């Protein structure tokens, strides 16, 4: 994930644990001495984790906060079980890092996955990309739950229903009115959100969810989907929110994705509401700290508005 746009010296969350190259070196020397002499370079930072490339073939991933460390442990437990059942490559944990006095959280080392983020300059055929993404989602959602249920770390909010989020999201709409109201039609976005709250709740079975299939988590090689990364949002739940990130993709990818999965209008409306929720909450939470992520959220909301007008 790109670290561009984060304001230097500003943390993103309360109780964020400081991370730099010296911290990573100390962890490697203590727990992975066979890799301690390899080259180390920043490999991006997202809202939840900071990454360093280790040598040519490895990636160190460290959570920003204790809460985010729960997602690291979840990846360590479930990715080895899910990977053999997926045709698309996903991160492979090769070391389960344990807390130390220098870094008091769980952390991971993964195999390095080559590829570029899905962007206009890396994808040549967006319709084909939409088809490939739909195939990944179908495959993931069809994997047996292996006896697990929507509990604990596998009960992330995006796999649930919209209504419990209404009070929180309503506050985010108010924040957006004071920041981006001149650039976004916040009133229409809130109307679409409110309309979705009145829809019947999902009634289908729970499935495995990636939780955050935005372009920065979709790696491309030779113009095609090559790998899916960042399973920190892995959960069990209703599939509606899984489809929300297609508004981050061009319309041709979105339409093909919809058709390939044969999504009905109710699912689409709930997915759009989830996309709105993530967009307005991202603007609200990161407005002063992470301009690049705010820009991603604004672009998503603009695409939703354009799509709603077109329909």
TrEMBL record:
Is-annotated flag, keyword ATP-binding?
no
Under Gene3D superfamilies, the record lists:
3.90.1200.10, Phosphorylase Kinase, domain 1 (3.30.200.20)
Q: Which SUPFAM superfamilies match?
A: Protein kinase-like (PK-like)
Report a single Gene Ontology molecular function.
kinase activity
| InterPro entries in the cross-refs | AGP_Transferase, Aminoglycoside_PTrfase, Kinase-like_dom_sf
Indicate the segments forming the Aminoglycoside phosphotransferase domain, all copies: 40-274
Q: Which domain of life is it from?
A: Bacteria
Keyword hit for Transferase:
yes
Enumerate the UniProt keywords alphabetically.
Kinase, Transferase
User: What is this protein identified as?
Assistant: Predicted kinase, aminoglycoside phosphotransferase (APT) family
Q: Which organism is it from?
A: Micromonospora inositola
């Amino acid at each position: 994930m790109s670290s561009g746009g984060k304001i230097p010296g500003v943390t993103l969350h309360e109780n964020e644990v400081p991370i730099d190259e010296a911290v990573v070196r100390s962890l490697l020397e203590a727990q992975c001495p066979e890799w301690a002499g390899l080259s180390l370079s920043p490999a991006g930072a997202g809202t939840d984790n900071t990454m360093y490339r280790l040598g040519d073939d490895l990636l160190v991933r460290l959570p920003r906060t204790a809460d985010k460390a729960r997602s690291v442990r979840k990846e360590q437990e479930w990715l080895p079980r899910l990977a053999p059942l997926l045709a698309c490559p996903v991160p492979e944990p090769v070391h389960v890092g344990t807390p130390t006095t220098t870094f008091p959280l769980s952390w991971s080392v993964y195999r390095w996955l080559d590829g570029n983020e899905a962007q206009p300059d890396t994808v040549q055929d967006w319709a084909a990309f939409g088809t490939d993404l739909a195939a990944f989602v179908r495959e993931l959602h069809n994997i047996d739950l292996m006896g697990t249920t929507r509990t604990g770390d596998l009960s992330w909010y995006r796999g649930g229903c919209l209504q419990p989020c209404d009070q929180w999201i309503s506050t985010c709409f108010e924040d957006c009115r004071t920041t981006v109201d001149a650039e976004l039609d916040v009133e229409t976005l809130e109307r679409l959100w409110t309309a979705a709250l009145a829809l019947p709740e999902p009634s289908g079975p729970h499935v495995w969810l990636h939780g955050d299939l935005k372009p920065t988590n979709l790696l491309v090689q030779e113009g095609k989907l090559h790998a899916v990364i960042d399973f920190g949002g892995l959960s069990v739940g209703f599939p509606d929110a899984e489809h929300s990130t297609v508004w981050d993709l061009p319309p041709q990818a979105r339409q093909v994705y919809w058709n390939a999965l044969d999504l009905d209008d109710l699912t689409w409306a709930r997915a759009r509401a989830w996309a709105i929720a993530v967009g307005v909450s991202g603007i609200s939470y990161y407005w002063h700290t992470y301009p690049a992520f705010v820009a991603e959220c604004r672009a998503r909301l603009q695409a939703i508005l354009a799509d709603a007008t077109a329909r």
